[in-house]
């Protein structure tokens, strides 16, 4: 049941990321054509930035789910499997604490930015900063699930190249 929910969540995130990427490409193309024609779309940059920030946060979580974030394994490769697992659990605990702290400050930042209106669209700044809150929640969820898998001794990553 949990695996089905995880797969469904990852598919939803992937679809959202692809839609955001398509929206950015289409928006930039239309804005470029409009500028050449002599009728620039003044809000296109703000919407493209909004989409890009959300895309980056979703993509970061998708990369973490698939084990595609970079890592240094020089020290851990020299350890026995038991010690390697302990080191990985320690590293993940540190990352969970860091993500929790970042989430705390991102939440307060999004709240502080709500009254601020952005440029031509006059949208609230919290719409932009909410991407950090949502993205950090997704990253925290992924990190906790992967830490639990390491704790149980099961694999959390899909087959990679």
* Secondary structure: number of strands: 2
Instruction: Spell the H/E element sequence.
Output: HHHHEEH
What percent strand?
A: under 5%
Number of domains: 1
Task: Give me the number of helical elements.
Answer: 5
Low-confidence stretches: none
Form type? elongated
In helices, the fraction of residues equals over 70%
Please state how the strands of the largest beta sheet are arranged side by side. Answer: 1-2
N-to-C CA distance = 27 Å
Write down the overall mean pLDDT. 89
Largest sheet: 2 strands, antiparallel
Structural class: mainly alpha
- Measured on Cα atoms, how large is the radius of gyration? 20 Å
Key terms:
161 residues; mainly alpha; two-stranded antiparallel sheet
